[in-house]
């Protein structure tokens, strides 16, 4: 740290500045004139990011017409999901074969996770496209910038800020299974205040969470209400305040493993952020001081029991952070920051009988203090190099230092060469540490990964294609280990008691993933767009001595492919089609339960009635393909939706 402070003092004394420092804010809106990435914590042009990344702007989101974020992410390379039924049921997203809780999700600069969940990850079930203006998927280990969980990658979600004195938008649609969705947003600029609020309501009768082939018959409905808000207040030249919030409340009917039940689940998510931005030295030195807060509550009910509530959990995060960026000289920028995150959880499963007392809830808390820095340099035209370091001090397992580095070279021929190396870690979740199955001696999961890729652009960018190869090794992965009964092992008893337990969490697993991601896009004539991608992801269990050594990790297809075509007709009609193919996978670690491959075809159309209003319609799973992403759980069949969209 002394060396870092000494270097920073030298940088402050530099008199030859040649550029402004990029804004150090993962919620910054993209420059309308170019593709700018903020998942890197700096507003960075896409051609200066060495890691593989996909950027979906508002036009992409509108064109796809998907209601859930997972559906639109599935169209991008390296992504797979599994869901326990229809909309609103537990949804797991995996990047490059990593575990679902090894993905960092960020909304308007605030890192999300659920400290009360088993793995501490984020459940995508309630995340609808809503008022989202941009989605970025940064693939590969990214913990030097984003800390714990960023082993598979980062999903960065940004909501918009208005550009006019008053502007608004809305989408209303309805369709199969009594599905209705309505969204509206309004914002503007009033003196020093720029503001925007948005809301969405979604309801559907749904499908049976348990597939009909496994005995499911009743429909399991889902409702969701969400609100978003952002405001920026300019206090003085170079000084501003940011306020951001997100709230979601969902209710979904669920089934037990044995079949249909009357059970349902309630969930509530709140995200809040307040920050102070200070720009010094004519914008060469940008600073952000922020406080982020997340609060997640989950409750399950079974109306057939005397005591209806079957599960009660709550998790909270509080994060204090400082982040700065400094323009050293033309093409040279340094990013640095410090964070303190405090997490706590509570969970309990009340017994069915009213005469049985509710046990004391499991509780726990942890704290991580972090320091990080990254240097970005452009030594010659077209070449960008980055190097980063991070140190985390966890209240349970002590310190951990990580490194990353990479480079991207854009040649005059339109060739783009990328290579990067990154390290990741995931702190044990509070549930894994302190629940009735907890183990306070757990170490963090660790990962190292690298990738190299090339892209070629021809015909003034009308044709582009490329591919990337990646590898990642994960060690000390945490799994649930079962206890024999009876057992004399001390770890097979609830800590501090003589009560035996079914099992405990331990660091025993090892996994390895490698693969290829290829993509191509063609715009041969005005209005016509054709794109495709293919992912080959080999994710295997490499746990030494385990009977599952060499097996596929569960619910991760090795082969996936996406393709789409869209044409904007001269009279205002846009039509398109999309196809997704997913190869086989296995539902369990022993690879004895196979999930078959499947192909889904979607059609969509949109007609611009005026510059303000448009009508749209789509057919999803046109050929009513029967498939599963999790064994015995249902998936949506053929679905038809139509609606109206307004932008003013």
Automatic annotation (TrEMBL):
InterPro entries: Beta-barrel_TonB, Beta-barrel_TonB_sf, Plug_dom, Plug_dom_sf, TonB-dep_rcpt-like, TonB_rcpt_CS. Its main location: membrane. The keyword Transmembrane applies. Keywords: Cell outer membrane, Ion transport, Membrane, Receptor, Signal, TonB box, Transmembrane, Transmembrane beta strand, Transport. It holds the Pfam family Plug. It is a multi-pass membrane protein. One of its GO terms (cellular component) is cell outer membrane. GO terms for biological process: cobalamin transport; monoatomic ion transport. The lineage of its organism: Bacteria, Pseudomonadati, Pseudomonadota, Alphaproteobacteria, Sphingomonadales. This is TonB-dependent receptor. A motif (TonB C-terminal box) lies at residues 631-648. Belongs to the TonB-dependent receptor family. Residues 46-154 form the TonB-dependent receptor plug domain. It comes from Sphingobium phenoxybenzoativorans. The keyword Transport applies. PROSITE patterns: TONB_DEPENDENT_REC_2, TONB_DEPENDENT_REC_3. It is found in: Cell outer membrane. Residues 1-18 form the signal peptide. Residues 245-622 form the TonB-dependent receptor-like beta-barrel domain.
């Amino acid at each position: 740290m002394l060396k870092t402070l000494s270097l920073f003092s030298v940088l402050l004394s530099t008199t030859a500045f040649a550029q402004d420092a990029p804004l150090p804010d993962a919620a910054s809106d993209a420059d309308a004139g170019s593709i700018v990435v903020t998942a890197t914590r700096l507003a960075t042009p896409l051609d200066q990011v060495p890691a593989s990344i996909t950027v979906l702007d508002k036009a992409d989101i509108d064109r796809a017409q998907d209601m859930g974020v997972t559906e639109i992410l599935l169209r991008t390379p390296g992504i797979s999901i599994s869901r326990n039924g229809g909309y609103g049921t537990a949804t797991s997203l995996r990047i490059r074969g990593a575990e679902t809780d090894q993905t960092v999700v960020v909304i308007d600069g605030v890192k999300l996770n659920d400290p009360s969940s088993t793995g501490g990850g984020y459940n995508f079930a309630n995340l609808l496209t809503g008022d989202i203006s941009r989605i970025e998927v940064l693939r590969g280990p990214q913990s030097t910038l984003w800390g714990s969980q960023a082993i598979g990658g980062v999903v960065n979600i940004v909501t918009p800020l208005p550009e006019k004195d008053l502007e608004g938008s809305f989408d209303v649609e309805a369709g199969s299974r009594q599905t209705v969705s309505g969204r509206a947003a309004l914002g503007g600029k009033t003196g020093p205040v720029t503001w925007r609020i948005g809301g969405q309501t979604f309801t559907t009768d749904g499908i049976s969470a348990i597939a009909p082939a496994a005995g499911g018959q009743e429909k399991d409905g889902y409702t969701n209400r969400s609100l978003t808000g952002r405001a920026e207040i300019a206090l003085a030249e170079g000084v501003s305040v940011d306020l951001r919030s997100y709230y979601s409340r969902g209710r979904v009917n669920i089934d037990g493993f044995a079949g249909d039940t009357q059970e349902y689940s309630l969930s509530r998510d709140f995200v809040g952020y307040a920050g102070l931005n200070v720009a010094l030295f004519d914008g060469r030195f940008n600073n952000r001081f922020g406080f982020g807060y997340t609060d997640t509550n989950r409750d399950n009910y079974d109306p057939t029991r005397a005591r209806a509530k079957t599960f009660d959990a709550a998790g909270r995060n509080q994060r204090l952070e400082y982040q700065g960026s400094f323009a050293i000289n033309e093409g040279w920028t340094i990013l640095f920051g410090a964070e303190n995150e405090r997490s706590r959880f509570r969970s309990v499963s009340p017994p069915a009988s009213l005469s049985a007392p509710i046990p004391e809830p499991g509780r726990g808390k942890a704290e991580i203090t972090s320091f990080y820095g990254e240097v970005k340099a452009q030594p010659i035209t077209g070449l960008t190099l980055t190097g980063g370091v991070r140190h985390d001090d966890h209240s349970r397992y002590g310190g951990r230092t990580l490194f990353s580095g990479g480079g991207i070279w854009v040649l005059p021929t339109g060739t783009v060469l990328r290579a990067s190396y990154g390290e990741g870690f995931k702190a044990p979740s509070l549930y894994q540490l302190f629940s009735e199955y907890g183990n306070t001696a757990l170490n963090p999961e660790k990962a190292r990964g690298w990738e190299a890729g090339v892209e070629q652009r021809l015909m003034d960018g009308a044709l582009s294609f490329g591919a990337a190869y990646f590898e990642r090794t994960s060690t000390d992965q945490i799994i649930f280990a079962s206890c024999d009964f009876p057992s004399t092992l001390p770890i097979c008893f609830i800590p501090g008691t003589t009560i035996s337990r079914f099992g405990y969490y331990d660091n025993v697993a090892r996994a390895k993933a490698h693969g290829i991601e290829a993509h191509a896009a063609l715009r041969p004539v005005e209005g016509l767009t054709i794109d495709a991608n293919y992912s080959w992801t080999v994710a295997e269990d490499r746990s030494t001595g385990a009977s599952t050594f060499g097996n596929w990790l569960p619910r991760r297809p090795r082969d996936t492919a996406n393709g789409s075509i869209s044409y904007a007709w001269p009279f205002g009609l846009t039509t398109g089609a999309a196809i997704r193919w997913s190869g086989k996978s296995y539902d369990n670690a022993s690879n004895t339960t196979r999930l078959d491959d499947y192909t889904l075809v979607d059609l969509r159309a949109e007609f611009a009635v005026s510059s303000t209003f448009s009508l749209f319609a789509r057919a999803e799973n046109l050929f009513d393909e029967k498939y599963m992403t999790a064994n015995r759980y249902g998936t949506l069949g053929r679905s038809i939706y139509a609606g109206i969209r307004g932008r003013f």
